[in-house]
Amino acid sequence: MAADQVSNKGVILKRYVTGFPTEDDMEVVTSGFSLAVPPGNPTAVLVKNLYLSCDPYMRNRMSKHDDDSATYIEDFVPGEVLAGFAVSKVVASGNPDFKEGDLVWGLAGCEEYSLIAHPEYLFKISHPELPLSYYTGVLGMPGLTAYAGFLDVAKPKKGDYVFVSAASGAVGQLVGQLAKISGCYVVGSAGSDEKVNLLKNKFGFDDAFNYKKEHDLKAALKRCFPEGIDIYFESVGGAMLDAVLLNMRKHSRIAVSGLISQYNLEQPEGAPNLFCLVAKRIRMEGFIVGDYFGSYQKFEEEMVGYLKEGKITYVEDIVEGIDKVPEALIGLFSGRNVGKQLVAIARE
Ligand SMILES: NC(=O)c1ccc[n+]([C@@H]2O[C@H](COP(=O)([O-])OP(=O)(O)OC[C@H]3O[C@@H](n4cnc5c(N)ncnc54)[C@H](OP(=O)(O)O)[C@@H]3O)[C@@H](O)[C@H]2O)c1
Fold first, then answer.
1. For the Enoyl reductase (ER) domain, which residue ranges apply (predicted)?
2. Is 7 helix (H, G, I), strand (E, B) or coil?
């Protein structure tokens, strides 16, 4: 290996995925990585990745979309390293905005070292005094998702009744806490008693339930919201969405962040109660966090303030080593993660 070459382990997609992904759909491979800025790309940034983020949207990129009308991002390419959000340290840069030693977060690869050809989704870390891993979560993409989706799309008012599904996860735990800061009453659902306990006793939700133990979701929601729901922060879809529709109030809002229960289905389910949108004049609006990256700095300062004042707390599920990426990634779809799932692959 040449003097400026290092070995680089990365996770590739072996084949396009249909149905539930398995570890065997991915493979950890080793290649060489040059630590010099390539002459053909003089403004590239080279980074050493410290933490890799596991995010549900990555499943969408593992499928082949012949018709791109139902997606918003390119499919992964079999044989290539998966793209993903990471917290990283710059090891070389031809870009005037980044220099060697900078700590950054943004879109990189699921690998030890990444060459970032177009660093438009790379942000400098302004608060290294906080855990750097937070930039995969509360101070990164999921944090901005919770912030923008709840405050800008759902537009809470003091006293609103708010329901959050997948509530203990990377996004959901923050939506619940932002709802409390906004003066709302908030209930969350999650898939285990351990997670329900976190919602009530760590994140300050007013109430929570284990949806896997409820045989009638409509009745469970009625029990938690006898007067109905003003805001539903949607991450799940399917039967949960359908039960929520029946419990929404007139002129209520649904901010659609994701539909994780549908991501591994070959035939997505419908929502038989969709007419509730008409009958109750509900505003249902989807959003993509990428549209809010322009307001990242404002979000970061506000969220850092909440963390430092103890108004927001954050739970992470950290596994060690790049070999763990496939297992951690697919664990999102069985609820194995407790809090934000990430993989630590190097220390600074
Ligand atoms: N719109 C955007 O820009 C944007 C950005 C980021 C994330 N998102 C979306 O936000 C949602 C949450 O993402 P996250 O990063 O915070 O993930 P997460 O909640 O940390 O992890 C995923 C969780 O989803 C739950 N889940 C998995 N399969 C399920 C199913 N079939 N039915 C019900 N719940 C299921 C599991 O929790 P339980 O144990 O509680 O079931 C699992 O732990 C996802 O839908 C994601 O696509 C959207």
1. 22-343
2. strand
Predicted pLDDT at 68: 80
**Nearest atom of ligand 1 to the alpha carbon of 166:** 40
Give the Cα separation of 140 and 278 in Å (integer): 36
Q: How far is the CA of 16 from the centre of ligand 1 (A)?
A: 21
pLDDT recorded at residue 262: 97
Ligand 1 closest atom vs CA 289: 3
- Containing structural domain, residue 47: 5-137+315-344
Whether 116 and 189 map to the same domain: the answer is no
Assess whether the C-beta atom of 208 lies below 6 angstroms from ligand 1.
Answer: no
Give the model's pLDDT for residue 106.
98
Same-domain status, 147 and 122: no
Report pLDDT for 3.
63
Please give the span between the terminal C-alpha atoms of the chain, in angstroms, as a whole number. Answer: 23
Q: Does residue 279 have its Cβ closer than 6 Å to ligand 1?
A: no
Mean pLDDT over all residues of the chain?
97
**113: amino acid identity, one letter:** Y
With a cut of 50, which residues of the chain have pLDDT below it?
Answer: none
Whole-number pLDDT of residue 70: 81
- Decide whether any atom of ligand 1 lies within 6 Å of the 332 Cβ: yes
Query: Does the CB atom of residue 153 touch ligand 1 within 6 A?
Result: no
**Residue whose C-alpha is closest to residue 300's, from 148, 111, 144:** 144
Best CA proximity match to 46, nearest among 31, 56, 28, 34 = 34
Domain assignment present for residue 174? The answer is: yes
Q: Is the CB of 191 under 6 A from ligand 1?
A: yes
**What integer pLDDT is reported at residue 331 of this predicted model?**
98
